[in-house]
Amino acid sequence: MSSTFWPHSEHWSVKIPLQTPHYRMPVLEEKGYAIMKTLDLDIPTAEWEDLVYMDWKSGGDTNFAPLASCDGTIECKGFWENGKPDKGAIFTSNAALSPKLMEYINTIPANFGRVRIIKLLPQQFDQALRSVHRDDNNRLNPEDEGWVVRMWIELTDNPDSFMLLYDSDENGLPIKGSEAHVPMPRGAHFVVDSQRLWHVGVHNGDKPRYAVIISAESTPELNEWIKKKM
Ligand SMILES: [Fe+2]
Question: What is the mean pLDDT of the chain?
Answer without folding.
Answer: 95
